[in-house]
């Protein structure tokens, strides 16, 4: 477990935004990413019959669609405390191998910090 209060305020913000997206939309996961200009993009899991995206891949797609060129950090909140390789690849595509991804439980407590690489 990571003490969420020890996080940088901007990192704590994206964890909070991810948690709120999950709760507000009633989806399994919420995610938020921060681009190199400090803008944040928030998303939940997409589970349509013809389209399935994790919350993290959706947040990365929203950042790309909005013109983001690089990511500083990402956060995912949900029951699962592991990330799929595709999720990390999406972060790596827009960030780099060192981009931190904060993985938090539904209580908002960060359980781990992984890098996209």
Describe what this molecule looks like in 3D.
With 117 residues, the chain is α+β, with helices and mostly antiparallel strands. The protein has one domain: 3-Layer(aba) Sandwich (Cytidine Deaminase, domain 2). Helix content is 32%, strand content 30%. The chain has three helices and seven strands, in the order αββββαβαββ. It has a five-stranded mixed sheet. The chain has a two-stranded antiparallel sheet with strand order 3-4. The mean pLDDT is 94.
Order of helices and strands: HEEEEHEHEE
DSSP E strands, number: 7
- CATH architecture descriptor: 3-Layer(aba) Sandwich
Question: Ranges with pLDDT <50 over ≥5 residues?
Answer: none
Q: Oligomeric status of the shown chains?
A: single chain
What is the rounded Rg? 13 Å
Number of structural units classed as domains? 1
CATH class: Alpha Beta
**Structural class, please?**
alpha+beta
CATH topology: Cytidine Deaminase, domain 2
Instruction: Determine the strand fraction and express it as a percent band.
Output: 25-35%
The percentage helix is 25-40%
Q: What's the structural blueprint in terms of helices and strands?
A:
Blueprint: H1 9-25, E1 29-35, E2 40-44, E3 46-47, E4 52-53, H2 55-65, E5 71-78, H3 85-94, E6 100-104, E7 110-115
Parallel strand pairs: 5-6
Antiparallel strand pairs: 1-2, 1-5, 3-4, 6-7
Helix pairs in contact: 2-3
What's a concise summary of this model?
With 117 residues, this protein is of the alpha+beta class. It contains 3 helices and 7 strands; from the N terminus they run H-E-E-E-E-H-E-H-E-E.
């Amino acid at each position: 477990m990571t003490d969420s209060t020890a996080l940088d305020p901007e990192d704590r913000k994206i964890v909070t935004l991810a948690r709120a997206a999950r709760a507000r939309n009633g989806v399994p996961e919420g995610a938020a990413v921060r681009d190199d200009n400090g803008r944040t993009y928030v998303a939940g899991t997409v589970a349509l019959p013809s389209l399935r995206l994790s919350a993290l891949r959706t947040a990365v797609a929203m950042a790309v669609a909005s013109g983001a060129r690089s990511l500083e950090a990402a956060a995912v909140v949900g029951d699962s405390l592991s990330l799929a390789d595709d999720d990390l690849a999406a972060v790596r595509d827009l960030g780099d191998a060192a981009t931190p991804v904060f993985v938090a439980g539904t209580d908002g407590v960060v359980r781990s910090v992984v890098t996209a690489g």
